[in-house]
Amino acid sequence: MTTRAFLVVTLLAFCGCSLTFAAKSWWETASFYQIYPRSFKDSDGDGVGDLNGVTSVLPYLKEIGITGTWLSPFLKSPMADFGYDISNFTDVDPLFGTMEDFERMVTKAKELDIKIILDFVPNHSSDECEWFIKSAARDPVYKDYYVWHPGKLVDGIRQPPNNWVSVFYGSAWQWHEERQEYYLHQFDKKQPDFNFRNPAVREAMNNVLRFWLEKGVDGFRIDAIYHAFEIEADEDGNYADEPVSGWSDDPQDYGYVRHIYTVDQWETPHLVYEWRQILKDYEAIHGGDERILMVETWSPIDIVMHYYGNETADGGQIPFNFQMISNLDYNSNAHHYAEMINRWFQYMPTGRTPNWVIGNHDKNRVGTRFGAERIDLFNILLLTLPGCSITYNGEEIGMTDVWISWEETVDPQACNNEQEGYEWRSRDPARTPHQWSDTANAGFTTGRNTWLPIAEDYKLVNVKRERGVALSHLNIFKNLQELRKTATLQDGETEVKALNDYVLAVKRSLGENYTYITLLNIFDHIENFNLHEHFADLPAEFEYVLITDRSIKRKGDKTPTSSVTLMPHESIVLKSSVRV
Ligand SMILES: *[C@@H]1O[C@H](CO)[C@@H](O)[C@H](O)[C@H]1NC(C)=O
Ligand SMILES: *[C@@H]1O[C@H](CO)[C@@H](O)[C@H](O)[C@H]1NC(C)=O
Ligand SMILES: *[C@@H]1O[C@H](CO)[C@@H](O)[C@H](O)[C@H]1NC(C)=O
Ligand SMILES: CC(=O)N[C@H]1CO[C@H](CO)[C@@H](O)[C@@H]1O
Ligand SMILES: [Ca+2]
Ligand SMILES: [Ca+2]
Q: What is the pTM of this model?
């Protein structure tokens, strides 16, 4: 045996690492948490959450095992879309605090070893952004920062350039009196789209990334990237109509046309590669842990995969995996679950890391979409699958949607439309204030009013109470984070399968280490399985390491592998009694 081979063998024996030797980067098994700052914690009693509020509860993130948090925007904004309409990309909105407050938050997060990820909203700016104002005034530097068009004349009447529709209803083109042209807005008319075909715009956005890297952020979550590019104008400067979909008979409705020219243009992933290079350049000069990009795109899965990178360029480390959000509902059975999870593995390029998302500020809460009896199920699933998990604030305590009257509704996606059907369009129900305690306004604010109502169930569903209840959603979440630290859950192989229509199993194994099996009973039947019939090479006995309030077994109880029983809606994690 040569010395070198001997060294490798002893190293392997010594540290017990798996044969693929590469050390993992911090984010690869991270547990991320999305904070919606308006609703997390209010520090000054105005009823709106803010940065000092977030700073004050960072120890809570530590308590629940969070590695990093991405925060929805808190940048300068007229708040036509609650901060997704940014008027200054390098300034904090006074509603959320000051740049000094931001810096304090970063410092505190670093002390606690929690990574801070900023929401980067490149698809548009606010119409109150200085760049837009100058563009409208045809300032030579900014003239082409946005997508402008004179429109067309039909019978002498000026019409928008084409039939493109905004996500928030109505034409995607807005007439601008001063410039005497239309500008493109894929969202609200107060959110003009940038012209990413202009190199100056790309450089301006690159500088925004550099600015925040200098401020110490650990990465960015890129909002709605699939809207970045539109099809190029033809020789006459015109943009083609999108084909009518046949799904809606209202030409103002976003579903009226098929979006083949306004989303998912081939250039878009390359924009993300360019941004990743900026992060790498920064790391090369300043060192420190890897900076990350999370990419939000609601695209078909084969397109999503392009955001990981190509053969020569890296893209985002975490293109959000929305398979479960988009394709599962209340009635989905275990085969659907298995299929949605395995699809990601099938499509993911080798060497990349999977990620799992089940909720965010744009979707109904898990307990409302899938039923309160499945809240633990999803937390258990997300935290025992390999790769990174992303939890929307409040899901760890099992918050559910809050019904909000039309009068109290504030989400533009609902308010820009007629009243009929607003409940279906409004994203407010999943954005209500975080429930910290059973005191007034759930401990969210010391003020009298809150920007959205507090959930009626806050006296039962809150952090303080759940800390004291052994099998609360919160404590189950915390127990999961402890389990996640084991070598098998960090590095193990994964097998996901439906045992029948009702029960999903996730097996994690790692060489000669303990094997873990997550069993999720999605429905309300009692189920019994001989796990030997479903998985090879299992030892004769397993131990319960995680139970829920549906369980009749206790933690530490043993079960023969040949006969594992699940109660209705019971989700558990089992650990092999011996190393296999
Ligand atoms: C098994 O896991 C333990 C910790 O749970 C770890 O110390 C050990 O190195 C692992 N062994 C192998 C063979 O992976
Ligand atoms: C953004 O705000 C900063 C700080 O107030 C200011 O220096 C900068 O010029 C502003 N940028 C734009 C584009 O308005
Ligand atoms: C990958 O993307 C980079 C950056 O956009 C580009 O220059 C390169 O040609 C692409 N490589 C392949 C193999 O497509
Ligand atoms: C997916 C999506 O629509 N993301 C964001 C894009 O921008 C709009 C408008 O600002 C936001 O409302 C969305 O949340
Ligand atoms: Ca406040
Ligand atoms: Ca765009």
A: 0.92
